[in-house]
User: What shape does this take?
Amino acid sequence: MDALVLAGGIPQPDHPLYKYTQGQAKALLEIAGKPMVQWVLDALGNAKKVDNVIVIGLPEDAEVTCSKPIYRIPNQGKMLANIQAGVDKMREITPEGEYVISVSADIPSVTGEMIDWLVDTAMETRDEVYYGIVPKEIMDARYPNSNRTFTKLKGIELCGADVHIAHHSMTTDPVHLAKWEVLIGKRKQPLKQAATIGIWTLALLLMGRLKLDDAIARVSKKLNISGRVIRWEYAEVAMDVDKPHQFELLRDELEEK
Assistant: This one.
């Protein structure tokens, strides 16, 4: 399976990470002697289930490597456009490929073992989208000061992982794309995401009565897809670098290694 690495984010002056990036790509923040994205590329290189790696959004002069064949695509301006361009490239280099892994460039603690676990677990079924979540207790046990945004459903609090799998057809249907554009734009705002899915979904979420299985069914119906949630036991896939203290936490941890 081929993997997309989403590395197009550039913090602006009003972003908390700007004091570290100073107008450069967030993926190039140095952690323990190498760019943050290089840690992700090393993990994909170590993953037995990954064939090719497509990096999207890095500057042309960014020096990164991978032990797997690596392809680079310039930033398309928006996350969904970057994903589309990456899937188009995947279909070009692997015409027979059906699924693609999407990985954020800002989860430097991810490992090849975790990527392989995801592929094996997801491919037990034949769904169109596999969306990763990490329960709050898993996150808190590994990173008690992560300061992640958690969504409270009935019986579980969770946050989204930053590694997913999708069928390539998910970026070719115009109807799907319009809905994905809205949901991706609100990915850090659970209440607004719920409102996008439907007012009753929002009401159930606010009342604490929305179950995980029900949420999956509602999203699948809204987007007219077959979706499956992957419940991770690895907190590392949700420990992304959005704030200074998260960057410092991961930097200190990886420097110790």
